[in-house]
Amino acid sequence: MHVPDGFINAPVSAAAGVVAAGAVAVSLRGARRELDERTAPLAGLVAAFIFAVQMLNFPVAAGTSGHLLGGALAAILVGPYTGVLCVSVVLLMQGVLFADGGLTALGVNITDMAITTTVVAYLVFRGLVKVLPRSRRSITVASFVASLLSVPAAAIVFTLLYAIGGTTDVSIGKVATAMVGVHVLIGIGEAVITALTVGAVVAVRPDLVYGARGLQQKLKLRVGGELVDAAPDTPAAAPVAAPVAARSHRKIWVIGLVTSLVLAGFVSFYASANPDGLEKVAHDKGIDSKTEEHASADSPLADYGVKDVTDARLSGGLAGVIGVGVTVVAGSAVFWALRRRRTSEPTSTEIRTQQSV
Fold first, then answer.
1. Is residue 1, in this structure, part of any structural domain at all?
2. What does the alpha-carbon distance between residue 300 and residue 319 come to, in Å, rounded to a whole number?
3. Can you give the CATH number for the domain in which 234 is found?
4. What is the domain count for the chain?
5. Do 314 and 38 touch, CB atoms closer than 8 A?
6. Residue range(s) defining the domain that contains residue 99
7. What value, to the nearest 5°, has the Cα angle with vertex 49 and ends 268 and 318?
8. Kindly report the CA angle at 69 between 171 and 307, in degrees rounded to 5?
9. Domain annotation covers residue 17
């Protein structure tokens, strides 16, 4: 659903840019509260994973494909504020390096694909978690429903933006019907990917999933030949659990990075070549008649291929690997900087202590 330059006029694109900038600023502040020693390393990996999976277009209808948007996945794994930043980093890398999504439309894309999907998904997710039994299965179910609804929500927001600032004279009713219809189908694919990913992480490390805080497995101690739950303040709990958690944390990070590299570098070659939902609707309804050439069209990585590499499989694979590497580095740098800033700021208790002195 990457909006290219020329779909939305300059005033509305600028307004969307202001909204996006404001949301990113708020998210930078909010992410400081979400990021800790567990989520900070994971956040950069989540951005890289979203980049990789977005390369895997899957067929949804005759001549149409879809791909992960990622807002729901990011919000549930690392928190809504951090989630907005994760998807924004991905969109920035795609727009600048791979000529995917217009640069003048970057604000539109962040508003639509990062803010809308993250906010809608997390609100739905939190609402479901409150009414469903507090279990791992409920987290997976809530992830499925939240991500499913987030995709057509993004389609509706695009339609509203196009109704206000579209550059072609097209029936908005027809655009809305086509956009929502195809993106409900894409939402099913998004929901499956999100639920499987969240479920896999929850199964081994629920404490790494922001939306599943409180579902951690309790430490078991053998007493009288039987396993019983250790009390939270049991002295043995910390020294036993900490090394295991640290090893598991590193293992998940390595597995996640390797998976992202394999998906982007190899599996992406087998992705559907059909246009995605927005491209298909734009072509069928005439929205794309005023599409402008991308400012990064001459980028060495434009269109997810390495310039001057003639072998299509190798070119696309190298571009995917480079994209994952650049995204994980850029994302990790942002999130570690926010984490360090949080730890360097005095807490409210310290402030009160200093004031009393």
1. no
2. 9
3. 1.10.1760.20
4. 1
5. no
6. 10-356
7. 45
8. 100
9. yes
